[in-house]
Amino acid sequence: SVWFASEMKALSDDCERFMSFLPGHIYSSKQGELRRWYNPPWYTEQIPSSPYDPLVLREAFEKAVVKRLMTDVPFGVLLSGGLDSSLVAAVASRHMAESDAACQWGSQLHTFCIGLKGSPDLKAAREVA
């Protein structure tokens, strides 16, 4: 039999084999398989890739963050305490210290965090801030 669930815990006790239900696919009970139903004209099975180069990745990431800091109003960073927001905050903070925005808005980067009191996310975000 075939079962569907949005979370693994609904199936983990009763199923032996699991398959991901990929985006843009439907399940055909006649054929007993998933098949793609949404085929946009830009979609290709061949996803372009390039060799891993940490320096290229770092440069692209920093350019993406700095591009979003080009503003004429004060801005801040939403911190979760995780790796992504911590890296964004680090790049933004370094850029602010070196830019004209520091003269206008101050060199201190404003950070914000949303969470429940006592949550590990808040603790991690405080450490990053």
Supply database-style keywords:
nucleotide-binding, asparagine synthase (glutamine-hydrolyzing) activity, Asn_Synthetase, EC 6.3.5.4, 129 residues, alpha+beta, two-stranded antiparallel ribbon, Putative asparagine synthetase [glutamine-hydrolyzing] 3 isoform X1
Overall description:
This protein has 129 residues and is an alpha+beta fold. The chain has a domain at 54-128. It is built from 4 helices and 4 strands, in the order ββαβααβα. Strands 1-2 form a two-stranded antiparallel ribbon. It has a two-stranded parallel ribbon with strand order 3-4. The longest helix is centred in the C-terminal third of the chain and has 16 residues, at 83-98. The chain starts with 24 loop residues before the first strand and ends with a helix. The model has no long low-confidence stretch (mean pLDDT 84).
Structural class comes to alpha+beta
Strand order in the sheet with the most strands: 1-2
Percent range of helical residues: 25-40%
What overall geometry do the principal axes of the alpha carbons give? Answer: elongated
Radius of gyration: 22 Å
Low-confidence stretches: none
Could you spell the SSE succession in H and E letters? EEHEHHEH
Strand content: 5-15%
**Ends: how far apart?**
51 Å
Question: Helical stretch count?
Answer: 4
- Largest beta-sheet characterization: 2 strands, antiparallel
Mean pLDDT over all positions: 84
The beta-strand count equals: 4
Enzyme class: ligase
EC number: 6.3.5.4
Domain Asparagine synthetase: 57-129
Protein name: Putative asparagine synthetase [glutamine-hydrolyzing] 3 isoform X1
